[in-house]
Amino acid sequence: xxxxxxxxxxxxxxxxxxxxxxxxxxxxxxxxxxxxxxxxxxxxxxxxxxxxxxxxxxxxxxxxxxxxxxxxxxxxxxxxxxxxxxxxxxxxxxxxxxxxxxxxxxxxxxxxxxxxxxxxxxxxxxxxxxxxxxxxxxxxxxxxxxxxxxxxxxxxxxxxxxxxxxxxxxxxxxxxxxxxxxxxxxxxxxxxxxxxxxxxxxxxxxxxxxxxxx
Length: 214
Prior knowledge:
The protein has helices at 11-22, 36-46, 62-71, 88-95, 108-119, 127-137, 144-147, 150-154, 167-177, 182-189, 193-210, and strands at residues 3-7, 28-33, 50-54, 56-57, 60-61, 78-81, 98-102. By secondary structure, it is of the alpha/beta class. Strand 4 (56-57) and strand 5 form a beta hairpin. It is globular, with a radius of gyration of 17 Å.
């Protein structure tokens, strides 16, 4: 059974998240903490499938812990609670293991689909963050009528922007930046919604390699 580790600064939020997680069918609680240093000690032993964490912990920003986990070569996908919807800090967290952002409050009905999708490597990206990814890579946003063409989805290997992105990846980021939802992209590209989310997840996993070259 897959497991998740909870890392929340406030005890009330931590308790609510524990209750929500335990109500998610097919998931178990690997452990919990309020401080990044406590999580750093326990995560290598517990090896959870996912880490669900606040953007800011009792002992500092989550980003500090993410960097330490990289140094320890511990790769755990992270879902992050945040009140922000845009900004460079969110992009920096994406570079260091964050794969999606969690709603607050998040009951089991909202949490379970996100956990299941994350376990399968499927993720979402809101328009402001998609625009920030394009900006950091120095890649232009394609016009909507061009990016929405079904042929763009099939060009997964073609060299896109400065060979950093495939044509399909640049088109995907452009559609997300224009505000398209995964189901709208799936309809335009004649794909399943799950395939669109999988492509977003694949792109997020590539970001640490792509961003320094942008």
